[in-house]
Amino acid sequence: MSPILRAFCMLLLSIALLPVTTAQQDPTLSVAERTLPSGTVFADYADAAIFLRGLINAGSDPYGNLTLDMGSASAGRCLFNLSDVVLAIEKRDAEPGCTEMCPPRAIISMECSHGPCASDPFMKDMKHNNCSFTLFDHALGDHVYETLRIMQRFLRKG
User: Fold this and answer.
1) Strands 118-120 and 85-92: what pairing?
2) Which H or E run includes 140?
3) Which side of the chain, N or C, has fewer Cβ within a 10 Å radius?
4) How many domains does the chain divide into?
């Protein structure tokens, strides 16, 4: 083995043996308040935001400002502060109404608590009292909805 390759392997080994640090857990929420029904436990708001970003096209900041982009205005593009909205989920089974049959879907809506607070990320100046987005998988809808609720809890307790 060449000396360069040996040094590189030793470097990789030393990196692999470094202690893993995790985000400091938020002591203000009980484990039950930060656990999804699937058993996923979030350490803090940032942890939940990263998980959400892995589920859907979502961006967030530490202050609760979220941008959700499902690809089109009709599928859902929302910009809002998580502290300003009431979340709801509606699950619909396959039904007539689309070109042929509308597939099963979960519609997650955000209703502003104190006047217009939501907008389309491409038209930020036009505020609305609500916004919603659609996911074509009930299980994914449940995960996204529960993750958003846990993120709200972190913001309200923080």
Assistant:
1) unpaired
2) helix 138-157
3) N
4) 1
Does 54 map to a domain?
yes
Max CA distance (Å), the chain = 68
Beta bridge partners of 107: 90, 134
Provide the domain limits for residue 72: 24-157
Give pLDDT tens digits along the chain (158 positions).
666 656 555 544 444 443 333 334 455 788 888 888 888 899 999 999 999 999 998 999 999 999 988 776 556 788 899 999 999 999 998 888 777 788 899 999 999 999 998 888 878 788 889 988 889 999 999 999 999 999 999 998 86
Q: Kindly report the CA angle at 46 between 91 and 129, in degrees rounded to 5?
A: 45
pTM: 0.77
Q: What residues contact residue 150 under an 8 Å CB cut-off, 6+ apart?
A: 33, 34, 35, 36, 42, 48
SS3 for 102? strand
118 belongs to a structural domain: yes
Q: What is the pLDDT of residues 11-21, one digit of tens each?
A: 444 444 433 33
Which residues make beta-bridge pairs with 109?
88, 132
* Six token digits for residue 68: 């959700």
3-class SS at 76? coil
Residue 8: inside a domain, yes or no?
no
